[in-house]
Amino acid sequence: MIFREVEDRDLIKRARRGQVEAYNLLVSRWEKRIYNYILRLVGDREDALDATQDTFLKAYQSLGKLEDEERFAPWLFRIAHNEAYSLLRKRRPEGEMPAEIAEGPERPRLYPVELRLAVKGALGRLSDEQREAVVLKIYQGFKFEEMAQVLGCPVSTVKSRLYTALELLKAELAPIDARGVE
Amino acid sequence: MKCTSFDLNAYYFGELPADERRGAEEHVAACAACRAELERLRVTQTALASIPDEEIPQRVAFVSDKVFEPNWCQRLWRPGPQWALVSAGLIAAAILLHGYMYRPAAAPAVEAQVIETRVEAELARRLPVALDQAVSRLEARHRAQVREAVAAVEKRAEIERKAQMAAFEENLDVLRKRFNVMYLASANMGGR
Known about the structure:
The structure holds 2 protein chains of 2 kinds. Chain A is mostly helical. Chain A is built from 9 helices and no strands. In chain A, helix 3 crosses helix 4. Chain B is an all-alpha fold. Chain B has helices spanning 8-12, 18-30, 32-48, 72-77, 81-101, 109-191. Chains A and B meet through helix 2, helix 3, helix 5, helix 6 and helix 8 of A and helix 3 and helix 4 of B.
C-alpha cells in the first residue's frame, strides 16, 4: 500500500509536467473505484460511466490545483461526488429516493438473492447523504477525515450521517442476523 | 445500544486514538452488550458486502484521446526538447537583429563586384586542390582497409592450413601403425 501511494505521487507529479501516459496509468488504477462509487450513488451504469469519464477529465484539467499529492484519493472522490450529485439533481426532484442499482446478469452471486435484495432495498431507503457516507466508509474504506474532505463537511457531520445510516441498516437487516451471515 | 463514553462505531472501524482504544478494548472484553453491538455491526457490514464492486463496462477514455489533449499553454510549459528549440530560435533572432542594427555601411556597387570576382577566382583556385586532397585521403584510407582485410584473411587461411596438415599427419601416423600391425600379423601367420 505504501509503495502504491509513492507510485501514485510520482505519477501525479509526472502528469502535472504534462506526461499523459502517467495520467493514463492513474486513470486505469482508479477508474473502477470511482465508477463503483458513483454507481452506488446514482444507480445507473450508463450514467455512472459518463460521470466517471467527466470526473477524470475534470481531475486532469485541475490537477494543478491539487495541493498535496498524498491527498489525491479524497480529492478525486470529491470531484466524483460533485459529478454524482450534479447528476442526481438533474435527474430527479428534491427528496425523491434514487432508483435501486439495476440487476446485471454478469454480477457474481456470492450470497443468496434475498439477502442482496434486502441489502439493496435497505440502501435505497437511506437518504443520498446517508448512503454516500456508507459507500465511502464500507465500500471505499475511507477514514472519517478523508470522508469529510470528500463530502466537504465536518467530521462530526460525517459521523452523524454514517451512524444514523448504520442504525437504519442494522434495523432493516436484523432478520439476516437471525439466519446467520458469514 | 451504547453503554460507554467512547465511540463504539469509531472503535469498530479502527479510528479511535491509541489511548482511547486501550480503554475500549478493556471495556468490550467485559461488556456483553457492547460485544453484541459490535457483532451487529459486523453482520451489517458483511451483508453490505454481498453487493460487490462491478467491473467497469468500458474503459475510461485515456488522456491520449483528443478530449484530454493539453491546451497550448500546458504544451508550452512542458519541459523538453522544445525549450532547446525555442532557445535556439531566440538566439538566432538576436543574431539577426544584431546583424540588422549594426550592419556596416553599404559598400559601393563597384567594390562589391570586385570582391565577388576575387571570391570566385579564389574558389576556382582552391576548390580543385581541396577536392584532390580529399579524394586522395579517401583512397589511402580504403587502400589501408583493404590491406588489413587481405592480411586478416591470409592469416586465418594459414592457421587453417596448418591445422589441416597436423590432422593429416596424425591420420597418416595412425594408418602407418595399423599397417605395421597387420604386416607383422601376416608375417607371423606365414611363418607358421
